[in-house]
Design brief:
It contains 10 helices and no strands. The protein is mainly α. The protein has one domain: Up-down Bundle (Formate dehydrogenase/DMSO reductase fold).
Length: about 300
């Protein structure tokens, strides 16, 4: 599949934003995160800013972005529409949560309830995003048990690393959040390795024989359906060289997982404010690594329509 940067950035930014929003909503309500004005202002601003930037970026992949609003009407049958509806609804409790925390200086009572509802909305939205891809049967690499959990794990991972960086930066670091971010990053690393192992061993059941319904012998194409590159080949027939894929996998492991783990581990041994430096670097490096990971997520996927082109 063609890895359009607008969609790559969308899945990365919204995942981190919703992960951060969910953690702020739960932990602030439990008084684990202090009700500091600037922490709430910057934290919620970063979470909602990432979500908004990602959603706006996703419209760049549409042929007619001005018609994006029509997707909301298909929520009964479309995961894309359900994602749009859930993302819009989530902004309501998130806004109330932000008003209570930033303007009133409260994170308990009704503000805690609003935060919990925002966290639930964030989780539901991440699930709908994952299901957009997990529900696509023609793409075997996505239509698997690994896709939806990956979206949830990566949202928790990037969100917790961002939250840890914020807490460390404001001098109110939490050992629990630091441990959570470290464990989530290790879980994300393990899940990504398991996903790659599954996809590399994947035997796609659809062949040219089953696609055409012709049994017996081997069906092969005498000539392409088109004489030149078309939309299907550009969008669904994108191919990446194996050696480039291997290098990008190593880069993903280094930036998204290995280096953040080392930086987070270093935070344990450093007093404030020195511990804030590796925490912030871990968040920045991991976000860059997840952009590479998302690019590979699309580039390594194969659509069965390419069977008609002899691929």
């Amino acid at each position: 599949m063609h890895p359009a940067f607008s969609v790559v950035f969308f899945t990365t930014a919204t995942g981190a934003g919703y992960g951060l929003l969910a953690l702020l909503g739960v932990l602030a309500g439990l008084q684990i995160v202090p009700a500091d004005f600037w922490l709430g202002f910057v934290g919620l601003g970063l979470a909602l800013g990432l979500i908004a930037a990602g959603l706006l970026s996703s419209t760049g992949h549409l042929g007619r972005p001005e018609r994006a609003w029509r997707a909301f009407s298909q929520w009964r049958s479309s995961w894309l529409s359900r994602e749009g509806v859930s993302s819009a609804i989530t902004f309501i409790p998130a806004g109330l949560f932000g008003l209570g925390w930033v303007l009133l200086g409260r994170t308990g009572g009704w503000v805690a309830i609003a935060g919990l509802l925002a966290a639930i909305g964030a989780i539901v939205t991440v699930c709908t995003t994952g299901m957009i891809y997990a529900s696509l049967k023609p793409i075997a690499q996505w239509h698997s048990r690994y896709t939806l959990p990956a979206y949830l794990i990566f949202a928790a991972m990037t969100g917790s690393v961002l939250l840890n960086a914020l807490l460390q930066g404001f001098g109110v670091g939490s050992v629990a959040v630091l441990v959570l971010s470290l464990l989530a990053t290790l879980a994300g690393w393990g899940w990504k390795l398991a996903t790659w192992r599954h996809n590399d061993r994947l035997e796609i059941p659809t062949t040219a024989n089953t696609a055409t319904g012709l049994a017996g012998g081997t069906v092969r194409s005498l000539e392409w359906p088109h004489t030149e590159e078309n939309y299907l080949l550009k969008e669904m027939g994108f191919r990446i060289a194996r050696k480039h894929g291997a290098k990008l996998r190593m880069l993903t492991q280094g930036l998204a997982f290995a280096l953040p783990v080392l930086l987070l581990a270093a935070t344990f041994a450093l007093p404030w404010p020195f511990g804030a430096i590796p925490s912030v670097l871990a968040a920045i490096v991991q976000f860059a690594g997840m952009l590479v990971e998302r690019w590979l997520f699309f580039a390594e996927a194969k659509h069965t329509v390419t069977l008609y082109y002899g691929r």
